[in-house]
Batch of 4 targets.
Target 1
Amino acid sequence: MIATKRVFLSGLMALTLGFGAVSSALAADNSAPDLLIRQLSLETLEAVKSDKDIQAGDMQKIIALVDAKVMPYINFQRMTSSAVGRFWRQATPAQQKRLQDEFKTLLVRTYAGALREVKDQSIALKPLRASPEDTEVVVKTEIRGKGEPIQLDYRLEKSGASWRIYDINVLGIWLADQYRNSFAQEIGANGIDGLIKSLADKNAKAASTAAVPKKA
């Protein structure tokens, strides 16, 4: 179980590598899903490596970076509803909003924590298997560094003329699937409000114990 969690967090680190700090990449071309992933990955990888504050572990700066630059390119409503599963339709609009907000905060902090570990990784993009008329695709990448490569795949949907991510696969485990079982257990025991409270408590605890910058 610990090994699985470590692999999953490694994948989240890789995800953050792919999306973080360079708004120019986002503006360059969002018309092709594989091009978007490639530009974000290559440009932000170098940006993260060259940011001394991030390398020093400035958590507040990392969180702000992820929230501002990463999250606008993720369909959080679809990701949250997929993670909550069949219970999503049972939630009121107010509960759905709370679930989405708390889930977003949880992932932002997870990504931010993983971002602190970025060192010498590189990213390889695999050929896209899709037709021009497709509105949902999977872009496959591989994170290479020390040890075995990390498989990292993205599900994207076309929204207008642009593409947005709605799920991520780390070594064969989709993000929504990773959370669905634990969310279902919490809802089964304490209801939808219980899941909201559980997520809010985790986020509050993480915020109150913000990490001290790492020593060089």
Target 2
Amino acid sequence: MSAALCQIDGLSVSYNTPAGVKHALKSVSLDIMAGEKLAIIGESGSGKSTLSLALIGLLPDEARTSGIITWPGLGHPPLPGRDIGFVFQDPGSSLNPVLTIGEQVGEGARRHLGLDARAARDKAIELLGRVHIPQPEQAVGAYPHQFSGGQKQRIAIAAAIAAGPSILIADEATSALDTIVQAEIAALLEELVRTGGMTLIFVTHDIGLAASLADRIAVFRNAELVECADAKTLIANPRASYTRDLLATYVDIDSPRLVGISDAA
């Protein structure tokens, strides 16, 4: 078995609100193994995105936290952009409309690898090719509005891996896309982590995509970790009733897709 890249022990996150204390995570303990593809699933508000933001150190200043996150597989706290690449949900808002694609994809290489402008441009062309953007030599000089939603997400992924991170976190990176493009992006993520030796943390509400992509699945509900198991084991023999409810929404277990999860699930 791989060694633990990250160990989360009793992590809690809460916020003071006019209505009282809101708990975003409640005493979550979870090991993330080096080289694995871990899916974190749950409905909106379950805590899955809060966990991904805690891992990269992007929680708001007003967040109250307790518990410990350690990184034995790295040997040091991760540096965002260098050790962890992050892909956000909406590629339209994660890309700057006034900067060229080459500038944005090459930024991480310039900042973390010390490449000059020419070398960073060459790196951006290479990365755009890796994420299957047509004619990458021309794409580096283009702007985000010239690309489709799926292409923008591919570009955002290229930017996230520019410095060769050990971990790639994709936080609802497919939810703003149509079903066919979702599958394409999931396949791209699998290809990149396999060829690049990265650990993938795939945050989603879609248990179908999680089942098709992940080695392990961690299920969250109401700020708590419900269960975590090998993907095949969890699909075949879920322990939690909530996970069974999620699985009951499958259309076809051999080609798992969700038809929808109600807020009361």
Target 3
Amino acid sequence: MSQERSPAAAVDGRMKRVIVVRFGLMPFVLGAIFFLPAGTFRYWQAWVYMGVLLIPMFGVLVYFLRKDPGVLERRLRTKEKEIRQKFVLLFGWPSMLGTFLLPGFDRRFGWSAVPPGLVLAADALVLAAYLGFIRVLYENRFAGRIVEVEKGQKLIDTGPYAVIRHPMYAAILPIYLFTPLALGSFWALLPAGLMPVVLAARIFDEERVLSRELDGYKEYMARVKYRLIPGIW
């Protein structure tokens, strides 16, 4: 799904401060997630991974604060309105927590050893996927975290949306799948492997909502046949 670019959304000064504070806390949140389970700061895989995510994230923050802070405000919304999406998130939490917390414990107890070359290759793939995520945000200013159709949204099929219906999920999925290796853990691949199932369930329900509430979405589905992977699904 994609919508025409809109003028910069009206976001007041207070909301901009909330956005800056929330994004500013991200390094500390990630640090707690990685280093507390590891029991040490001597965890180079986590430092590299944080750089891979946080450096481009800072660029996103600066760009959209100037051009369209409404994009960032939508990314802060987490309260789903659809009951089915709430259940999807409920079942998705174990996968998310395991993907990001388990590598730290793996580092502490030495359960697995991912070769440094494979770690860095995974970091490169995570970065590429994250840049794809940023591209989607630029194309679709209404790409929030929750499933909803806002007043004034208009469907278009440009950019990555001309190829697949859900390019944001196509970017998010490899981030989850390669994060365990980037953090030096083979064991965390197990919870990460559940994420495709979670995203598939989310996509099915999201398309139900969009078909019902967004003008032209049914026709868009007929034109763009693949949801996530061109030529496959």
Target 4
Amino acid sequence: MQVLLAVLEHQRRRVEHPTVVAAAALLRAPVDERARVGTYPLVAALDVVDAVDGEVVEALRTLPTATMLPDPLLAAAHLLVDAGARSRAVAGWLVDPAQVAPAAGFWVAVAAQPVFELAAVDVPVPQRDRWTAAACPCCGAAAQVSVIAEESGEFMAGSPRSLCCGRCATTWTYPRATCVRCGESDARRLGSWVADVWSTARIESCDTCRGYIKTFDLREAGGVDVVPLVDDVASAALDLWASGRGLQRSTRSLAGV
């Protein structure tokens, strides 16, 4: 938890820095036009390779002195000091975070998230009839978690489900009873697992692809205090439980699972 707090404080400081603001503006530049003509994702992640590379350097300089980091993260930090290794990790992560080893991906995610989240502020998220994918319509990354909110108010509509992007924090609607990895919608092949210690969080699994996503139910007691991307890290024990049963998620949290 100390590592997470140090990361959040680092990102809070960086999101206001001129270099991050400029990178976010570059990323944001084509959004309105792409939204107008229905081109998704709305941003081209590789446009900010150099900026994210520089932010990795800043994270490597700052975080090891701010908190005690686990040995795998320190080892990855040592490797990323090399400009070539760092450039490959950044480019690979921007294309698909799953391409990068978890420890190296931690550093790139810490560096990139302020840029992407700032660029995604007030993006015109498409309605369900225009965007049906499980990938983020803003930046194209895989959904990290899903969220169930209050009742929609529409007759027989129930409580809507939204997916949340771990790269830019954009949320968009997605069907409740559909696997986010393979699109399976047969309820007999979909499962839900709740831990007593996490009343707001559960694992939603799929027998077809053996994938899962962590879902936060904001209707439960304590749901008002849930910050999905933060609580995803705090509830890493649920991911360990899922992986122990042979389940895999599409994208990792900062905890590396």
